[in-house]
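Supplementary notes for students who missed Thursday's class. We covered one full example, reproduced here. Read the sequence, then the structure, then the short commentary at the end.
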Amino acid sequence: MQDGLKRVLDYADYLAAPDDGRRYEIVAGELLVTPSPRPVHQRVVARLGRLLSEHFDERRRGEVFFSPIDLVLTNHDVLQPDLVVVDDRRQISERGIEGPPLLVVEVLSGRTADRDRGLKARRYAALGVRHYWLVDPGARRLQCYRLARGSFEKSGEAEGDATLPVPGLDGLDLPLAMLWAESTAP
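Structure (token representation):
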């Protein structure tokens, strides 16, 4: 490759990333690297994952996956969201989850918030993810977005100890107090 030319990365490049404890993702052919999440982040992911698993298991209408799981949206878009909910089992493959799932959840941190709200949100919408949630442990807030006409529109939001009825997800009510219990933002 000549100097000065930009290379668009793909799934093969993703597979060649080192196993060094960092999270590697490719978005529109560009490499994103983040360190491992902090304990408060992991607590929120685990608690929200349990709530979602209970909801979807009861209805037999989906399966919840925790990071690290590869979400392969295109050959140039391979991400590792914190949580993924799949409602079509044909999307589950040896590589991970293939194609746009029902729901992607990202838990924000100071290092990832701008990227999760901007670049990743736009890309998830462009590639057909139907629901996208942003969880902010520091603000104790959960924002829900729903795909409409190729972009995300806010469909719900709550903070503190409120219970959030999630529009479009079959009677899902999230008691946010369960997410924040004994956790403090970094």
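Commentary. The longest helix spans residues 39-59. The helical segments are 11-15, 39-59, 113-126, 177-180. If anything here is unclear, bring it to office hours.
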